[in-house]
Write a structure and sequence with these properties.
single chain, mainly alpha, 4 helices, 77% helix
Length: 64
């Protein structure tokens, strides 16, 4: 079950990646709902994802 929430979170973030403000908002919601180890996985995924979308790099501050 927790894996489904993590996967859903990633899909939501991918869908809203066109807007950095909305992306940051969804990222904040995700951090509240994920388990600590899932947040670590999300950080790694975000580092990879923001390389393709440099306009979202500022959102990395939300998870750090």
């Amino acid at each position: 079950m927790p894996r489904m929430i993590y996967d859903y979170t990633k899909s939501v973030l991918e869908r809203v990646s066109f807007d950095p403000v909305l992306f940051a908002k969804e990222l904040k919601k995700a951090i509240k709902n994920l388990l600590p180890y899932e947040i670590e996985q999300l950080k790694k995924w975000l580092q990879y994802f923001t390389k393709e979308h440099p306009e979202l790099e500022q959102c990395l501050k939300v998870v750090n």
